[in-house]
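Any chance you could type out a protein's amino acid sequence plus the matching C-alpha cells because I've never seen that pairing?

——
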Amino acid sequence: MLQSQLIISPKGKLMAMIPHYLLINDQLLGVLKGNEAHVNLPPGRYKVTIRSMYKFIESSADVYVPIGESKRLTFTDKDKIWNWLFNIDLVLWFLKRILHVPEPWGTIYEMVSNGFFAVWLLRILIIRKSYFNIEEKQPKDA
C-alpha cells in the first residue's frame, strides 16, 4: 500500500518550546519537543490533536492526507500578547521586590497584576479546546 506522510511542526522558532503531545484519531503518538515530526500514514482523513502538557489545553484539526503525498501542519499558540504581558509583569515584580515601591503604588501594582492573571485564567478556561492555531501548508519539498 502506498504510504503518505504527515509533517507537523511548530510555527516559527520559539526560545523555550514546551513539549506537546501529538495525537492522531485520539491515539497518543508521541511528544513534540520543538522539532517537526514526520508520520507515515495510509491515505485518509485523520483527526490530528496537539495537546499541551496540561491535558485540558488542546486543539484538533480534521486533515485529509492524499495518496502518496505529504501534508504539512503548523501550529502555534494564541498567547503571544499574554506572554509579553507576563514577561513585563515579571520584570515589574522583580523591580518591586528590589526597589521597595512605596504605597499606594505597591498595592495598585498587585491589584493590576492579579487582575491580569485572573482574566488570563478565565480566558484559558474558555478557549482550552481551541488553544492552538493549526494550519495546513504546502510541504517545502512539493
User: Anything to note?
Assistant: The chain has two helices and eight strands. The first strand starts at residue 4 and ends at 10. Strands lie at 4-10, 20-24, 27-32, 37-41, 44-52, 58-65, 70-77, 132-137.
